[in-house]
């Protein structure tokens, strides 16, 4: 409430509570009682008097007009604010409704996308299970084929070893069955003699016995001696050792026994004879054998006669033992 409104209210209060005019003289008690004025009428009269006073006061009338204008301005502002608040509330409600609808629409789209992804994931899981089953079947088939391949490789290796052994035996048999050199005419004449014939027959029988012994030894140990080359200071044996791992061909050279005195033969030097081992490998056919043999059997070595049995035991073990691939 501003200053002008307070002044206007004060003027109205002063006009309402203005002092009453002095009473008229009473002629008699009864007359005064019957003619006593009405208080409401007096108040209305005073108000009319105050209104007339205000009409007569131009400043008060101007203030009243200003207050009326201010009231009308305030009422206009109130109506404008009320209309603006209603419009803004409607606008906010419309925005909120649109935002809610958009959010619901987005949620529906997200749910639909998740459902599609779930369906695709289920399909992918089914395909993965199918592929895993196929992979397991392929692995089992590969394992079977690998085992079959190993078995065939082992069978092929055994066949190769058998072929080599048979080839070596055939070569030895051919060498043994070659006809002897043609004897001179003097020997033929001597052979005609009965004593010479008997000696030759005995020698032939001895050769047959030696051949039988050699065949038996070869069957028991797998060692075949293809030939012997004798020289002045050493003998060279052409040997073939067969086994499950292949065929090993080597030269075994044995020096002639000599006594402690150089150049003098004697029985005391038998254990001092030296053996020399020289392997013979075929680069194309013996590669598998080279992979399993120890290093000391793939190169030339020398050892005394006392170690010959140990050496041959190592050879037989390497040729007959099963190696894991």
Question: How many helical elements?
Answer: 8
Structural class: alpha+beta
Helix content: 55-70%
Q: Provide the number of structural domains.
A: 3
Describe the main β-sheet briefly: 5 strands, antiparallel
Got a strand count? 5
Write out the strand line-up for the largest beta sheet, numbering strands in chain order.
Answer: 1-2-3-4-5
**β content, as a range?**
5-15%
Whole-number mean pLDDT: 77
Low-confidence stretches: 15-20, 25-34, 259-268
Radius of gyration: 71 Å
Distance between the termini: 112 Å
Order of helices and strands: HHHHHHEEEEHEH
Based on CA inertia axes, which overall geometry fits? rod-shaped
Biased composition (Basic and acidic residues): 1-13, 53-66
GO molecular function: microtubule site clamp
Domain Monopolin complex subunit Csm1/Pcs1 C-terminal: 212-305
Protein name: Monopolin complex subunit Csm1/Pcs1 C-terminal domain-containing protein
